[in-house]
Amino acid sequence: MTYLDGLVLDIDEGQRGKIAILPDGREVHESQIVLSQKGLDMMLQGYLCGRCLQDFTKIGVEAFPEECPVCHFHVKELQTEQIRRDFSGTQELGSRLSLSDEMARLGELWLPGS
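Above: the chain sequence. Below: its structure as tokens.
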């Protein structure tokens, strides 16, 4: 287990995320990180770094420090704006069916011995 268990649900480092243009003109794909509700709440309340995801409660740092002690991101100054810019809404994860409905559907699709 890591300290991010229960806070981060998924990280997509593929090309589905946003594209950022670096000062030298290069384009880079930004990772898409899916936070749990608890992780999002901690970030909004300033207890989780918006850049490196450091959990400040684990290292004895108060909410919205001037600077993240790990990555040196200016949390107090920039975090709220970064969340506003990067937050792309909520999404449902997993099946929309109950387990019993999913099992019934699978039984219709696959019959042993056929």
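The beta strands are 8-12, 19-21, 27-29, 32-35.
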